[in-house]
């Protein structure tokens, strides 16, 4: 017999959680670093890049979150097939998928409550739901927590309410 789950599993970071009104765009990873699924993505002159701890971007450049699109990423194939092992990030030069509006599973550093604002901690790039000391975080003004993480679940469900750029 089946068992009723008492928590909602949000999936892994970068998983689109609802699809009715999502907007996902393709943009090139123009940085020299991997962009992990679920990571905040910022626009630059050559494409997009992940959050930079060394030179933090501003909210005006916030594009959205890197999406794990199962039919386009090699992580659906067994390891060794096509000489590309499973991965959890877009590599430099990849054309990556970015959610600019809609709901997505994100890994957060702390628990929040429904409706919490989402911030990026500038010291390590972690997504958090508390502001911290002045100047230590970047507020993602158009993002709210829809369902906070609970118990041992490391992901929350967040919603990007409106497009920021593009």
Chart the SSEs and their pairings.
Layout: E1 23-28, E2 35-36, E3 40-44, E4 47-50, E5 62-66, E6 89-90, E7 95-107, E8 117-121, E9 127-128, E10 137-147, E11 155-160
Antiparallel strand pairs: 1-7, 2-6, 3-4, 3-5, 5-7, 7-11, 8-9, 8-10, 10-11
Structural commentary:
Helix content is 0%, strand content 37%. The protein has one domain (23-160): Virus Head Decoration Protein, Chain: A (Beta Barrel), CATH 2.40.300. With 166 residues, the protein is mainly beta. The protein has strands at residues 23-28, 35-36, 40-44, 47-50, 62-66, 89-90, 95-107, 117-121, 127-128, 137-147, 155-160.
- What composes the largest sheet? 9 strands, antiparallel
Q: Say how many strands there are.
A: 11
- Rg (C-alpha, Å): 16 Å
Runs with pLDDT <50, length 5+? Answer: 76-86
Helix content, binned percent: under 10%
Task: Give the H and E element order.
Answer: EEEEEEEEEEE
Describe this structure in a few short sentences:
The protein is an all-beta fold and 166 residues long. It has strands spanning 23-28, 35-36, 40-44, 47-50, 62-66, 89-90, 95-107, 117-121, 127-128, 137-147, 155-160.
Keywords:
mainly beta; 166 residues; nine-stranded antiparallel β-sheet; single chain; 0% helix; 37% strand; Virus Head Decoration Protein, Chain: A
